[in-house]
Design goal:
The complex is a heterodimer. Chain A is α+β, with helices and mostly antiparallel strands. Chain A contains 2 helices and 6 strands. Chain B has helices spanning 19-27, 71-83, 97-110, 121-127, 133-140, 155-166, 182-196, 199-204, 207-215, 219-228, 232-250, 254-273, 284-292, 298-338, 343-360, 363-379, 381-395, 403-408, 413-418, 426-435, 445-456, 460-484, 506-540, 553-565, 572-581, 587-595, 605-616, 619-631, 636-646, 649-676; strands at 5-13, 31-35, 42-50, 53-59, 87-93, 114-119, 130-131, 144-146, 274-276, 495-497. Classes of the chains: A alpha+beta, B alpha/beta. The structure holds guanosine-5'-diphosphate.
């Protein structure tokens, strides 16, 4: 299965988290929001100006900038 | 046994879990809003009664976790650890159990006595989610009560359980350990062993909790240990070895492993407690959202809604504003007629009543504005507005949520700054507050209208537009500059939940409006009252036989600063006008009236004033003056809220300093640059 950055996932794409890297503060926040290994993420849409992205995971909706989504490695499903 | 007992309960929960609703239902109108000491995070306290218990309820800031990662988390965690509430009520959104339980795992780790309020249980049922609450309580080691915050359902049960837990009469209540897996547990034990060598530490906290936090690279706990422990070296060494060991064996950093384990624990719990769980279907909320954040329609709809908000604020606000203005006029006339002539009368009528009255007329506007703001917040639209505008705000180094306060600044910076409360991150809030006064508020418009009308004739509209644009451009530049210098590296990640759309609750909207209104009134009673008296004093002393403003202290200050203003193209009269404009910017216009001896009631007063101004200033100087008015010192009211919201005089003074410098520089460049180009 192909490993890619969450920021590269197309709208309406689904993926599973492999790993969160990046700076400490943001990593911690993402981890506690549920970006742990195996979590399924659905890219619902992007904002009118193309950034941020709206994600659905664990039954809630989250807005995340591409800049930060770059630090999330996922595998597409 | 009629003796009153007092206990303290803290409410903890994720943002949007309905914590405010539960708090309101618990305490009724019996509540107080303040700030947590030293930080500008809102603190709400109230009282509830149950049996012969008098219960103090403290609403902790909404957080996703207790990692001391944001100001809110730090405040919440410090309260739980240091103030040691008797019971913590953990408010949970039952339609979003998985993530909400993450905070619960942290409460479990802390080993506090807790009750879970399974809120939004109506919504969960509606969605077809059925939860075995007894089982959930067993697995978490804390009793669980289903609640509906909006309708006050389950509130009595919640209090009963809290009291039972406090009295240790609740059989479900017990300590449980979240198992992090063999390797990690091993390391936790080793760190615990190192910690236990230190008596002081083990008395204050559970060593297991400390060990877990240390493994997670928790900076605060680490600093605490370094400050308190005797054998720091041993402990720090052990932590380092443990980190290295975990990373080597498990191939991931310990934070990731721990978060994984907590979510693993939650998964295990959920597996047992979901009796039925419907799978996501397209909800009404989703349908609303496809329109409101539509690629093409999203921005126009947002702008349209803001337009409606402002129109209503100013058109609907006009009526009560007129009434209050009329009332103040009557009071003023009544006092003029009844009080004996003299200093006291002058102070009361021209100082206090006109000063305070000039600000208090904005109360209706502020209340209406916050009516809209709280509707936007409670429906969940605010998060969408931030989502839509984040890209734009990001270029200023700000958060999408700063968009609304920035736009509100066009109306009035005072209310805009009060609106920054919805920004969770402290740096974002500081930055938004500091640059907000560059957004030209409506009080500055009369000044532009007078000067542009006098000097630029047909082009007046364009000039005013250019001044507004200058403000926006400066806000962008200053924002970026501050972000790169003062607030370097403090950018908060934009990880924002988009809660489902909900119908707003009239009661909570009313509470919100009332809170903002009373904050504003308190400010009027305090700082504005004081400043009005100071301005009055400066304008009316020293007493001379025939009153001349230029001889007053204000006039003297005006003349004193004249040399500094000279290079900008305007002299001491401009100086006086600007000084009085600190009270409220529209006063600049009336000061010009006084300075050029144009009476309030003369029919052709506008024309006279314009002629007088034309003799004294060139168009270029007028433009320079308008820009100075735009940028220099925020008005008194704004300074007052700045001081309140920034939590320190230091930042308010910084705002004064930077705005004066910037105003001077911009006016200088425009005026001198214009002269060089041969413009006059
Ligand atoms: N259906 C339903 N809505 C609720 C309940 N509790 C709160 N709400 C709504 O959820 C939204 C967020 O509530 P609020 O108390 O402001 O959340 P907070 O951010 O946790 O303080 C508001 O629109 C409330 O009216 C509940 O039990 N059931």
């Amino acid at each position: 299965m192909k490993i890619m950055k969450l920021s590269d996932l197309p709208v309406k794409g689904t993926c599973r988290v492999v790993k969160v890297s990046g700076e400490k503060a943001i990593k911690k926040r993402l981890l506690e929001m549920g970006f742990v290994r195996g979590t399924e993420i659905y890219v619902k849409k992007v904002a009118p100006l193309a950034d941020p992205m709206e994600l659905v995971l664990k039954g809630f909706h989250l807005s995340l900038r591409r800049e930060e989504a770059k630090d999330v490695l996922v595998e597409k499903i | 046994m009629n003796e009153k007992k007092r206990i303290k309960i803290a409410l903890a929960g994720n943002p949007n879990s309905g914590k405010s609703c539960i708090f309101n239902a618990l305490t009724g109108s019996n509540q107080r809003v303040g700030n947590w000491a030293g930080v500008t995070v809102e603190k709400k306290e109230g009282y509830a009664k149950f049996g012969n218990y008098e219960i103090e309820v403290v609403d902790l800031p909404g957080t996703y976790s207790l990692t001391a990662f944001s100001m809110e988390e730090l405040v919440a965690r410090d309260f739980i650890i240091k103030e040691d509430p008797d019971v913590v009520i953990n408010v949970i959104d039952s339609t979003n159990l998985e993530r909400n339980l993450y905070l619960t795992t942290q409460l479990i780790e802390l080993g506090v006595k807790a009750v879970v309020a399974l809120n939004m249980s109506d919504e969960a049922k509606h969605k077809g989610i059925i939860i075995d609450i007894r089982k959930l309580g067993e697995l978490l080691g804390m009793p669980v009560v289903e609640t509906v915050g909006t309708r006050g359902i389950g509130i009595q049960d919640l209090l009963r359980e809290a009291v039972a837990v406090h009295e240790s009469k609740e059989p479900l209540s017990r300590h449980i350990h979240i198992n992090y897996g063999g390797e990690v547990e091993e390391e936790i034990k080793k760190i615990q062993a190192a910690l236990k060598k230190d008596r002081d530490l083990t008395e204050a906290f559970s060593t297991r909790w400390l060990a877990v936090k240390l493994l997670e690279h928790d900076k605060q706990v680490r600093d605490d240990i370094i400050a308190k422990a005797g054998a720091t070296d041993v402990i720090l060494k052990q932590i380092e070895t443990s980190h290295a060991h975990i990373e080597k064996i498990l191939g991931d950093e310990s934070e990731i492993i721990l978060a994984d384990a907590r979510y693993g624990f939650i998964k295990g719990v959920l597996h047992e407690v979901y009796i039925h769980r419907a799978f996501d279907r397209i909800t009404i909320s989703d349908r609303i959202d496809t329109i409101l954040t539509n690629r093409l329609l999203g921005i126009p709809i947002l702008l349209g809604l803001l337009w409606v908000m402002f129109q209503t604020t100013f058109t609907l606000g006009k009526y009560p504003m007129g009434m209050i203005g009329g009332l103040i006029g009557h009071i003023s006339a009544f006092l003029s007629n009844t009080m004996p002539d003299g200093l006291i009368k002058d102070l009361v009528v021209n100082g206090i009543v006109s000063g305070v009255g000039g600000v208090i007329v904005f109360l209706p506007n502020i209340m209406i504005l916050f009516f809209f703001i709280s509707i936007f917040e409670d429906t969940g639209y605010m998060a969408r507005a931030a989502f839509i505008m984040d890209r734009v705000m990001h270029t200023l180094g700000l958060h999408g949520k700063s968009f609304i306060p920035m736009i509100m600044g066009f109306g009035c910076n005072t209310s805009a700054i009060m609106g920054t409360r919805m920004l969770e991150n402290k740096t974002d809030r500081l930055l938004t507050i500091l640059i907000n006064p560059l957004i030209s508020c409506s009080a500055r418009l009369p000044v532009y209208i007078l000067l542009a009308g006098t000097f630029f004739g047909r082009n007046a509209g364009n000039v005013i537009f250019a001044v507004y644009m200058t403000g926006i451009v400066l806000a962008i530049l200053v924002g970026r500059l501050f972000r790169k210098t003062i607030f370097k590296g403090e950018a908060a990640p934009f990880v924002m939940e988009l809660p489902p759309y909900r119908l707003p609750l009239l009661k909570s909207v009313a509470i919100h409006m009332w809170e903002k209104g009373s904050v504003f009134l308190r400010k009027v009673g305090g700082i504005i009252l004081a400043a009005s008296i100071v301005v009055w004093f400066l304008m009316s002393f020293p007493r001379t036989a025939e009153y001349k403003m230029e001889q007053s202290y204000a006039g003297q200050i005006g003349k004193f600063v004249a040399p500094v203003l000279e290079p900008l193209g305007f002299g001491w009269k401009g100086g006086i006008a600007l000084i009085t404009g600190i009270a409220a910017k529209e006063i600049v216009v009336s000061t010009f009236g006084v300075l050029y001896n144009v009476g309030e009631n003369e029919v052709d007063r506008m024309e006279k004033l314009q002629n007088a101004l034309r003799k004294d200033m060139t168009p270029l100087a007028a433009l320079s003056f308008m820009l100075f008015t735009l940028i220099y010192i925020p008005c008194m009211g704004t300074l007052g809220v700045m001081y309140r919201e920034l939590g320190s005089a230091k930042w308010a003074l910084f705002a004064v300093g930077y705005s004066l410098t910037l105003a001077w520089l911009v006016s200088f460049v425009v005026y001198r640059g214009g002269m060089l180009l041969g413009v006059r």
